[in-house]
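tokens incoming
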């Protein structure tokens, strides 16, 4: 693991942040999770565009220009030196007085972590993961917009904890209307025939970078990919189900709440997407 902080590359034991930072105290900040594929940071400009938009929405002044942040990510990736890795870029509101008032925070902090990351064992990546439907619900988009990747991920943390305590790998999160939002740490896709269906952001889904990439790959392959509201029943009626995320990758789903989903182990559409993803990632990556 390598970490860029305050202009230096350091190890995890050297990286420090104030206990009065509002990112720590209140989850007041933003992050981006990115993947390094074949020595290239996947869709780095898109991630930084989303970071900048989230910062504007929160009224958080990024401490560096976007071009400088891009170089920070690439410098940290070079220091780690692996062709396959995970990047976590974090920006906090900075140190301030106790209390939620952010107007007294004057020194926003940015740091970048590059390390190895595997969310699921290889056998699950091959056979498919198990999901449960979480009892917690995704907050309404007019209370906490899921398009902002804030540091407050408690909703996802509780859903993931519930899944693990029940022996599952991942949680499916519904919104307050009972429609599918996403998984705890990933977007979800249902396949019917040759059509890919994924929940819209208005139902609580993050507009994920890997989600967007899968939809673009599907278009290149001649597979329709559309945003549409989904319920749990759609998963049981699906031919295939998979999840996508920068951390997760593209992962098939085998079961939901103990019941088999999909029409067997072949998952031809998912496999098409998986085969097409590496060359797409290389094409869309920024070398370091």
């Amino acid at each position: 693991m390598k970490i860029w902080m305050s202009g230096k590359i350091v190890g995890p034991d050297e990286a420090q942040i104030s206990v009065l930072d509002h990112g720590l105290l209140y989850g007041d900040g933003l992050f981006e999770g990115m993947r390094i594929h074949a020595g290239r940071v996947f869709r780095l400009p898109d991630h930084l565009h989303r970071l900048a938009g989230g910062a504007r929405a929160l009224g958080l002044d990024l401490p560096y220009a976007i071009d400088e942040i891009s170089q920070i990510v690439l410098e940290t990736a070079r220091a780690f030196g692996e062709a396959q890795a995970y990047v976590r870029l974090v920006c906090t509101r900075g140190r301030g007085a106790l209390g939620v008032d952010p107007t007294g925070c004057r020194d926003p902090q940015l740091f970048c972590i590059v390390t190895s990351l595997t969310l699921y064992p290889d056998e699950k990546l091959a056979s498919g993961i198990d999901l449960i439907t979480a009892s917690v619900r995704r907050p309404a988009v007019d209370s906490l917009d899921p398009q902002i990747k804030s540091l407050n991920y408690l909703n996802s943390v509780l859903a993931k904890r519930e899944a693990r305590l029940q022996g599952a790998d991942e949680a499916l999160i519904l919104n307050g209307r009972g429609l599918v939002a996403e998984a705890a740490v990933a977007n979800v896709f249902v396949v019917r025939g040759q059509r890919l269906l994924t929940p819209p952001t208005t139902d609580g889904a993050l507009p994920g970078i890997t989600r967007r990439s899968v939809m673009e790959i599907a278009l290149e392959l001649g597979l329709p990919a559309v945003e549409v509201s989904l319920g749990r029943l759609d998963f049981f009626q699906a031919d295939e189900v998979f999840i996508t995320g920068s951390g997760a990758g593209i992962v098939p789903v085998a079961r939901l709440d103990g019941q088999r989903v999909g029409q067997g182990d072949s998952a031809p559409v998912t496999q098409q997407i998986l085969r097409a993803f590496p060359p797409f990632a290389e094409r869309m990556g920024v070398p370091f």
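note: The mean pLDDT is 96.
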